[in-house]
Description:
Structural class: mainly beta
Shape: rod-shaped
Distance between the termini: 207 Å
Number of helices: 0
Amino acid sequence: MNIGSLSAASLVDGISYTANPDANNDAGFFENVYIYQFTHAGYAFYHVNGEIHSIVGGQVAYGPIGIYSAGAGFRMSGTSFIGVSGVTVDLVNPPGNYFPHAVLISNISTEGCSSILQTGTASVNVNISGLDTLGNSTTVPAIDFEAAGVLTVTGSYFTGNILMGQNSLGTFTGNSIGGNASAPPTVTTQNNFTSIGNCWYASPTLQAAASAIFTEVGDLCDQLQPAGAIPAGPQGPPGPAGPQGTAGAAGSQGTPGAAGLQGITGATGSQGAIGPAGPDGSAGPTGAQGATGPAGGKTGPGGPKGPKGPRGPQGPQGIPGKK
């Protein structure tokens, strides 16, 4: 199928997926479609739910963007791009800043195209394998991957610079990445970057953020030469003070503390001074009668006879006797 004309730019988008509201409009299959002379994009996927498309073979030629996607994941294999003046694949930030599906690109070729891939900062994973380019620009990045995701490039040939964003991770394996003495390739990365078994030409350089981890294993030809850390930008002005927070609720009463340890026994006090004399005591009780003393001496001699005493009174009359 041919869409467009080789003689005039008669199209805005060769194939356009739009939906309002953004409902499911996906799983398109495009095989051997040839799209020419457009003013925006050969394929344009304008909404997140227009996804899981398959592009097989065909050609996209003479326009600013090969494939434009605002959130739709797709698979592409065996397609060629000629004379794309801007970027072959452009992944812009969708609403929600998230691509639900990955973008998988294999065995494509470009000729006379400016740039291979550029992304926004949205979350997306991209896998490129078997890419073959000819004559792409060395004055703009061949790959500008700013997405919060992983870019994997395997078994591909291209020339030009690579830019990786602050939240981007890159793994390049078994590629041939060209340049020339006046424009050697440069890798600039804000995050971790891994190079395995690649062939880098023309004394390439690496600029990595101080926090980035660069891993290079078994690279061929020239190797990436660290060219120093990416300089930090100027410090921005302080932001305005935030509003005062509301007072927190009163805390609950704490549990009673454990009983204290028994104190150490005090030292023995010194002896007190002698007190003053006490008052006189009261009289004691009467003592018990003593024991009888021994018998006295013998009876003395009798005294002299005394005088005769007076006559005593008359006694009473006696009772008469029986006759």
